[in-house]
Design goal:
Two copies of one chain form a homodimer. Chain A is of the alpha+beta class. Chain A folds into two domains: 48 residues, Winged helix-like DNA-binding domain superfamily/Winged helix DNA-binding domain (Arc Repressor Mutant, subunit A, Orthogonal Bundle); 82 residues, Lrp/AsnC effector binding domain/regulation of amino acid metabolism (RAM) domain (Alpha-Beta Plaits). The first copy, chain A, is 38% helix and 29% strand. Chain A is built from five helices and five strands, in the order αααββαββαβ. In chain A, strands 3-4-2-5 form a four-stranded antiparallel β-sheet, covered by helices on one side. In chain A, α2 packs across α3. The longest helix of chain A has 13 residues. The interface between A and B is large, with 66 and 66 residues. β5 of chain A pairs antiparallel with β3 of chain B, so a sheet runs across the interface. Chain A binds a DNA duplex (17 and 17 nucleotides) through α3.
DNA sequence: GGTGAAAACCCCTGATC
DNA sequence: GATCAGGGGTTTTCACC
């Protein structure tokens, strides 16, 4: 696991850079923190290997690809049995409209971040994942009017 | 704006690739969809230029850098005045513990995805952003027990 | 263990068709 | 859009601390 990997200050600086922009060159990072480009690349390789960096991905503007709507859906299951939890998790993970899925304490059991092309698309999603599922007691929907901060930049 | 840019099937295939892995080579993408590497790069450049691809970033495992806890916080403002909304947005966006901030309809006004090193760190966050703010009526906290799906992969 | 320097390699870029 | 030549970034090797 990556949990026991000890970062030093150079690693943290590098992570701050690549969390903003993964295409920045090792040379530029190195110049800003006083390291050679090769050293930066070596550290990046290690950070990937040990799992501190889980992936390097392109972020796509949902509106630009026709996924103009975003919803936050709280889901409460009928019965909290492990097999039912796992079944729901699997279905949520596999659903293309589900961007994120959190298993939480509190009122809801799961919180989902969902995008959809339009209301019909969202309704199709709710039928698919929620209504046609006897194990779901109820769910709440919040419509996102503005995404003020996105991504998953972690403070390091 | 990027909203009026028309994607074709090649673009969509490319977006599926780079949303999973931004380091994949143009050659590999091209081979899988029947395009030359140069053509793929040209399309990627265009997708960046028009804003379909908003960024290419490294994803960091929060647990690996000591941010082991995740929370979902619903925030209800005292009065929904535009200047107060904007003030809160700005503060949330600037806060290092806030990973995501959504302005929503429904019970809450904002939904935040927050990470913290531990409960003390989270408490410090709530003081900083929530308690020391007369404009906040109340907030709810849900503790994330499992992050089943993360990132912001958009179906294209 | 770590770094920096240089060469080799690979990929991206731009020009051309 | 494809092909090819040129430039740039990454990766490896090596010597060094």
């Amino acid at each position: 696991m990556a949990t026991d990997y000890q970062l030093d200050d150079f690693d943290r600086e590098i992570l701050r850079w690549v969390q903003r922009d993964a295409r920045v060159t090792g040379e530029e990072i190195g110049a800003s923190i006083g390291l050679s480009a090769a050293a930066v690349q070596r550290r990046l390789k290690q950070l990937r290997k040990v799992g501190v960096i889980t992936a390097e991905v392109a972020l796509v503007d949902p509106a630009a690809v026709g996924q103009v709507m975003t919803f936050i859906v709280g889901v409460e299951l009928e019965r909290e049995r492990v097999d039912m939890l796992d079944a729901f998790r699997g279905a949520a993970r596999a659903d293309p409209n589900v961007q994120q899925c959190y298993y939480v304490t509190g009122e809801a059991d799961f919180v989902l971040i969902v995008t959809a092309k339009d209301m019909d698309d969202f309704e199709a999603f709710t039928r698919r994942l929620l209504f046609d599922n006897a194990n779901i007691r109820r769910f709440t929907t919040q419509v996102v009017m503005a995404r003020d901060k996105v991504g998953s930049s972690v403070p390091v």
